[in-house]
């Protein structure tokens, strides 16, 4: 069953239940209203009859009382009863034995709907209202009026009428069953149309997202969903579009990664194979040529080893197989050791290497992995800085904020050529190199792997930190590393 069908059915069920509850409540209210209306009518008749009896001065003669009111009661379809002071029926105008109430007792103490009559008449005539069930199991509403309100042993006159609420509600004699059914049918029709429209409006954006996801599953990574509908659906569509963009970028990075790995492996393998074939064929026979060929083969083998090691390291960091040895680390000591290691190389290349470090708190980190990060950052900075340039590393403490905890930030900046703005967002991708010529080592013997910054990013993220880059062409590049003081448990 589709989502639209489920929504339609659920909305229809809710509306039908609401209509049923409303109908039951309306029926209850109408029954109560009909009952009050009956009491009001009977109260008027009863008080009028009693007043006429009082005016005729026959209230003490039971025969004359019944003679005066019985014929009128039968003509109007009501039952008239003469009660004693305890509520026992002495005489009645019952139509037959089953409706006769002679000998039975009516409850004159329980007021069913005392407000049925006007307050003035009820108080003056001492009238009460109630109900009883006759021999045919039919319910009657009665109003009884005391003939002599000031005498405890006075008789009562009761006027009763069948209360025909039953399953078919009527009002002023008109049946409401058909109007109820017609109104319910019209309401249900409109409810079904409304449920269909609501279900469609809810299901359509989700269906578009589902269609887009299906297209992406089939390899169509350029699929995007229009931002339409309620805010929640717009958010869902926006999240889907962001996911699709990331998937598309991930697929592109995967293709680039395969191409870059193939290229990086092909070059040293070609050199190794070529010189090995030359030695095997005897093309390199003198000791000097043989030594040169062997040195090249060894250098290319080391290059392959570094590449494979870097790839394995990156893969393990990405999958979480490498566990960080977190302990209290003075990052200034780690950076100082890296500066000392690169000082001779910077001096040899005519580059000023400086560290402007202030005291920062100890942090929970893996010191060896941080040394790997700063080694790579300083290596890149010196590599891409011309003679007479400057490489600087500085730090600062970062207080806690609403978005991140307290931490420390270290920045490595150089005065090199800079990185084009188009390439800057991708420098932390594996094998991405802005310029192959810029990836050479200090002796210009072979190129780097293009994995250094990618591994740095993975290490910093494993520390729950962040790494970012800013660069201006012709001025230089600045790489910033932020690390939290304490690691999450």
Can you walk me through this structure?
- The protein is α+β, with helices and mostly antiparallel strands.
- It has helices spanning 3-56, 62-76, 119-125, 177-217, 231-281, 287-319, 331-348, 367-383, 452-462, and strands spanning 79-83, 89-92, 127-133, 139-146, 156-162, 170-171, 174-175, 327-329, 352-356, 363-365, 390-398, 407-414, 466-472, 476-484.
- Among the domains are: 3-177, 2-Layer Sandwich (Beta-Lactamase); 323-484, Histidine kinase-like ATPase, C-terminal domain (Heat Shock Protein 90).
- It has 9 helices and 14 strands.
- The chain has a 5-stranded antiparallel sheet. A 5-stranded mixed sheet has the order 9-11-12-14-13.
- α7 (331-348) packs parallel to α8 (367-383).
- The longest helix has 54 residues, at 3-56.
- It is rod-shaped, with a radius of gyration of 49 Å.
- The model is unreliable at 112-124 and 437-447 (pLDDT under 50).
CATH architecture of one domain: 2-Layer Sandwich
Low-confidence stretches: 112-124, 437-447
Distance, first to last CA? 45 Å
- CATH topology call of one domain: Beta-Lactamase
Gyration radius from CA atoms, angstroms:
49 Å
Query: How many individual helices?
Result: 9
Beta strands, count? 14
Give the class from helix and strand content and strand pairing. Answer: alpha+beta
